[in-house]
Write a structure and sequence with these properties.
Strand order of the largest sheet: 1-3-4-5-2-6
Distance between the termini: 56 Å
Structural class: alpha/beta
Largest sheet: 6 strands, mixed
Order of helices and strands: EHHEHEHEHEHEHEEHHEEHHHH
Helix content: 40-55%
Number of helices: 13
Amino acid sequence: MAEDNDNEWFLQLSDYTKLKNRRLELLPDTCFWKTRLQELIKNRRLLKKLGISEHGIYLFAGPSGNGRHITGSALAGSLMASYGLEPEETGFLALRADDFPKGMKVAEVSELITSILEDQADARLRILVLEDMDQYAYLSAISNAIADTIEQMEEDSEDASEEEKARLIVIGYITDETLLTSDLRSQALILRLPCPSERQREEYLESQLEWQVDNPENPMVAIALTLENITVSELAGQTDGMTYAELEQLVCYLKLSAMERMVDAGISLNLTCGREEAEDCIHMAKLPNVASGQMPVIKIEQTAASSAANAKGPENNDRAMALMGKSDRSFSENMELLDFARSLG
């Protein structure tokens, strides 16, 4: 975070090379928010007529790996361009969880946020980015301070012309949007990026099977990745729950698996990947869901089912069989069933 130097927090966006050249039009067509955000920027003045509240607060919500930061960065760059501004005329500040240490008082956190938001600096547009908001120790205080300050700023500038209004954009990234206060949720435009649906996964995978690359010897080389004995639709069906990042990793694994059967014809390159290799790639590309509580239960059921007939005593056997047949077991009943399995070794 920038040092509090004469109450100037924002630095020039030109200092952040990763952001200054990002644009929405450069996002892949498979990005749900690409065209929607483009239309929002283009028709910003019509939002009130459409009944859409827009206070310059954009919160990207959902699991990491689905393009939250790429989309948010593209929005920041496109907003700057829509106002006809250069990076040197745009202020930028990114806040992270460690910028709000736990030793701070709630009042100090609120005062800090208000000071940052009210900092006019020399920028015609200021962009405040809130990284990984789930990890903030004072998320409620920060959320309320943003909501209250921006509401007050809007009231103070009601009579100002569009040219005179201070342009402030808040872009935040959060996994669990329910952690936000109701005040901030009511003012923010929540842009959800969940894991892609089966149709979206199929569109993405289809777009990755053919591409072109520059070649020093030839103007362009056409490359095709062919799936053998498995369709893209089947591939999409087997990737349920994957993020776009995992799908990108899957495509990488498919390419590596197909290199053994690669045919290089100079101006074209053909790769072929079979069903077994493709299914192995799916298994390797999907991150294990360690937070899921289903796996231990499955193991309990399998252990108990294989040994219930040998349970010691008819009473224990009846109880174990009754628990096995129950579909909505409580946590304590699962633990009881686990104890039966453990007693049988």
